[in-house]
Write a structure and sequence with these properties.
heterodimer, A: 600 residues, mainly alpha, 3 domains, two-stranded antiparallel sheet, 23 helices, 73% helix, B: 86 residues, 2 domains, 3 helices, flat
């Protein structure tokens, strides 16, 4: 155990615990200081030797809270960095609990990233799920409450699969170490753990929780949500399932699946959510390819993705926060009111689209290049196809139909709209700066990647790659503007059904089942009981009553009247002297006793 | 705000902006065909050596994605906004 190493998750958890005690005038400083400290703690790790820290004995297992290597470090840097940006974005939120929930969520992510064993991983994995749901519930809308419960139920199911896999794995191998699983001949334990990871990475068919829950979060909560759960899962996949061929397929499918849904989506935050699925698809495919370049690509893309997706969700959040509206069919023409939100969101859109000089260009291309080098041509071409849809939605459709196009705002919405407060713009500015910086100065990102040599050999800015990307992107833009001109792609109100339909309607079927058939059965049983039980019972009771009335009562009455008659006669026979009567009773009793003794 | 003025300036000269953009597309495709400028040694497949391969890929790919997505939506996936409301 090293005395120098400190867990950055603990910084955030302690900070959250102290937050309610901080006086109001120091609150904003404190809110910025805690993530900055956590970020500093992570940066300090680069100056220290790598290794494992904070071993804790628990029952017969050793928990490892601090495994520091190049893979955990690259994720820890971006997670703590994004925590700072997200906190700055929501700096004006006065409710402490919202900040505490966000920090606990990030702490869960950091704990999972530094976990050296599976039990610690599971502990923090669940912490993420339970903390993040509050970022949805704090929106305090009926649909957020419902979406939060669905989110939690789905994640609890995923967590159970992970736990079952861990139990089987530990039982089979006797080791709790979190390292590469058997990807070539996976057993039940490996598959169960994989399902837990894939659910958090939102891989179809386990993805529907994401576009259901993320658009329901608070304006700043969704910024956090967009970064941590899926990318922590990407980290776990990099660590545990690198080189599993199944993941190439799944990754390519999800990159296109997200794009198809995003193209027909009307709500901007749900559109961005579908593009998380699409972008994580590149990373999952990279993990599946599994070469040094591909794993580097998955990590680099996760790093770049957290920044530009955070930036896009901040753009969507500012529209929600300033206008109360996120549906493109009710927006448009906002460039006059929110020009800076437009400019910064556009940078996010260009970064996710992998425009040269923006961050996506230097990260996404690594994965596609790795696909070509591994002779997975179809995968590489399909991933290129998905990037067409990425630009179409994030770089063209959202900026155009929100800030330009026909103004479909309600008068009150348009009146309300203006650029967001300084801290929201500042957070977007920081994210936008890094999107451009990483795209222009590649060593900043490449030096962090786990396979250093492969990263140094890779050069994204070859004339061919630049020409290829610009052709794809600019001709996509051409098609977009022609379609706009032809009025073929006007956004219109609507909802697109996804696989959450099954459990949403399944839940309703259960309710219906409870209301209709189960209640009918209950009524039926009641009726059967009434007809078959109650009526004969009443009849038999009636008969008993009559029997009681006529036979027993008659007998009793007869007996009573007989006794009364005898009594009436006896009354005349006795004289009222107690002693005489007693003497008579004792005498009869003695006589009876004598007879008894003599004759028996 | 200066940014707003820049956007309005571009909108006021939309025709010119569109012309420049189209010219840029043409230049891009022409440059791609000059081996001295774009070194196709990095190409992975034979098809990529065809001039303007990726331009066609972008154009047709985008059309295909939009058509497929819209068709998919019309199969019953797209429904009314309050579908889940009770």
């Amino acid at each position: 155990m090293s005395n120098h190493w400190f867990h950055p998750a603990l910084v955030l958890l302690l900070g959250g615990a102290v937050l309610p005690l901080v006086p109001a005038r120091l609150k904003k400083t404190f809110l910025l200081a805690v993530p900055a400290l956590a970020f500093g703690v992570v940066l300090m790790m680069f100056t220290m030797p790598r290794g494992e820290f904070w071993h804790v004995q628990f029952l017969k297992w050793t928990l490892v809270f601090g495994r520091v290597d190049s893979l955990s470090l690259v994720f820890a840097v971006i997670m703590t960095g994004m925590c700072g940006i997200g906190t700055l974005y929501g700096l004006h939120v006065e409710e402490d609990a919202q900040h505490i929930a966000a920090w606990t969520y990030v702490a869960g992510s950091l704990g999972a990233i530094f976990a050296g064993d599976l039990l610690t991983l599971f502990l923090f994995w669940e912490m993420m799920a339970f903390a993040s749901v509050f970022l949805i519930w704090f929106r305090r809308q009926p649909e957020s409450t419902a979406a939060g419960f669905r989110y939690l139920l789905v994640h609890v199911a995923g967590g159970l699969s992970l736990l079952a896999g861990i139990v089987l794995h530990v039982y089979a191998t006797g080791s709790t170490t979190f390292a590469a699983f058997n990807v070539h001949q996976p057993g039940a334990a490996d598959y169960l753990i994989l399902i837990g990871f894939l659910l958090n990475a939102a891989v179809p068919p386990l993805h529907a929780w994401l576009p259901d829950a993320y658009p329901a979060g608070t304006f700043n909560g969704s910024v956090f949500l967009s970064a941590f759960t899926t990318k922590t899962a990407v980290y776990a996949l990099c660590r545990g399932f690198a080189g599993m061929e199944l993941l190439v397929w799944l990754g390519v499918i999800m990159s296109l699946y997200g794009v198809v849904y995003a193209i027909i989506e009307n709500d901007i935050r749900r559109l961005f959510a579908y593009h998380i699925i699409s972008q994580v698809g590149y990373m999952v495919a990279g993990v599946g390819i599994g070469t040094a370049l591909a794993i580097n690509g998955a990590c680099a893309h996760a790093f770049a993705h957290i920044l530009y997706k955070g930036l896009l969700f901040m753009g969507g959040g500012s529209i929600l926060f300033m206008t109360g509206e996120t549906r493109m069919s009710k927006l448009g023409g906002l460039y006059k009111k929110m020009p800076w939100a437009f400019f910064l969101t556009l940078i996010g859109g260009l970064s996710i689209s992998a425009f040269p000089l923006f961050s996506g260009f230097v990260s996404k291309s690594m994965i596609i290049q790795a696909g070509f080098e591994s002779h997975l041509l179809w995968a590489a071409f399909l991933l290129n196809l998905a990037s067409i849809g990425t630009f179409y939605c994030n770089g063209l459709k959202v900026p155009y139909f929100v800030w330009f196009g026909q103004n479909k705002c309600e008068p009150a919405t348009f009146e309300r709209a203006k650029d967001p407060p300084w801290n929201m713009l500042a957070a977007m500015g920081v994210a936008a700066f890094f999107c451009v910086f990483l795209g222009c100065y590649t060593p900043a990102l490449y030096n962090l990647l786990p396979y250093h040599e492969a990263a140094m050999e890779y050069h994204p800015y070859s004339s061919y790659h630049v020409s290829e990307s610009l052709q794809i992107l600019l001709f996509t833009a051409l098609v977009f503007f022609v379609l706009v001109k032809l009025k073929k792609i006007e956004p219109h109100a609507g909802r697109n059904l996804d696989l959450d339909w099954f459990y949403r309607m399944g839940g309703r079927a259960l309710l219906w089942l409870a209301r209709k058939p189960v209640q009918a059965i209950d009524t039926g049983i009641g009726e059967v009981y009434r007809v078959g039980g109650l009526v004969p019972l009443m009849k038999s009771a009636g008969m008993v009553g009559r029997f009681d009335n006529r036979v027993i009562d008659g007998a009793v009455d007869g007996l009573a009247s007989a006794v009364r008659g005898v009594g009436a006669r006896l009354r005349f026979a006795q004289r009222g002297a107690l002693q005489e009567n007693l003497t008579f009773v004792f005498a009869v009793a003695a006589l009876l006793l004598l007879v008894f003794v003599i004759f028996f | 705000m200066n940014l707003l003025r820049l956007i309005e300036f571009l909108r006021d000269h939309l025709r010119t902006v569109v012309r420049i953009a189209i010219a840029a597309l043409v230049v891009l495709v022409l440059l791609d065909a000059v081996p001295a400028i774009v070194d196709k040694a990095h190409a992975h497949t034979a098809a990529e050596h065809v001039p303007a391969f990726w331009a066609a890929f972008g154009l047709l790919g985008c059309l295909a994605l939009v058509i497929v997505s819209k068709t998919f939506g019309h199969l019953g996936i797209s429904t009314r906004e309050d579908y889940y409301d009770e």
